[in-house]
Amino acid sequence: MNCILCNTKLLEPIHNEKPHRFYDCHCCGSIVRSTDTFPNDSIEIERYESHNNDVNDPRYQKFVSPITQAVQTDFDAQNSLGLDFGAGTGPVITKVLKDIGYHLNLYDPFFHPDTSVLNQNYDYIVCCEVIEHFHQPLKEFQLLKELLKPHGKLYCMTDIFRNQIAFENWYYKNDPTHVIFYTEKSLQWIQNKVGFNHLAIEKRLIVFS
Predict the structure, then answer these.
(1) Terminal CA-to-CA distance of the chain, rounded, Å?
(2) pLDDT per position as a tens digit, 194-205
(3) For residues 95 and 137, what is the distance between their CA atoms, to the nearest angstrom?
(4) I want to staple 66 with a disulfide (CB 3.0 to 4.6 A). Which of 15, 40, 103, 205 is the partner?
(5) CA dist 21 to 31, 105, 155, Å?
(6) Domains of the chain by residue range
(7) What is the Cα–Cα distance from 155 to 126, expressed in whole angstroms?
(8) Which CATH superfamily is domain 15-208 in?
């Protein structure tokens, strides 16, 4: 198979334990799930609906706080418009920010499928625990950049794979809806390929500008 991000031909899998088989890409640095084990829509929906995402749960609000705090630092509530891309069943970022006066639209292919919100541009876009689910990540990142205003920012949260992690024991690979894992190298590849001016990585928070 080829890498789902950069389309480079992949060689031997680095992990092959049913139902999970993963390859690492020596070109862009991503780790990708074998496409023949990708979940279908019904499996994805069932998995997402099983998440207990209560937008009023203080623990959930704390989990997304790297994004909500960054938005508050970078943008004024009254003079900016955001998009919660991949908002899921519990759009907690939107709830937290709207409670303090921010304005956001929601988009999710399964739970908020109103594509009209993709016909305008945004000061910022938030993607929390979303980008690891992208079946066509380059296409998705290109779309996200097109949706941003010239000085806009894309805030993402995901677990980044780092060399000190033992992949065979990594919990993040066990979710069948996680099809790509990013490294610093693959995030830099995305920055350069898609045309973002700046990339900042702080633990699980990734900001493209």
Answers:
(1) 31
(2) 999 999 999 999
(3) 26
(4) 205
(5) 10, 36, 29
(6) 15-208
(7) 5
(8) Vaccinia Virus protein VP39 (3.40.50.150)
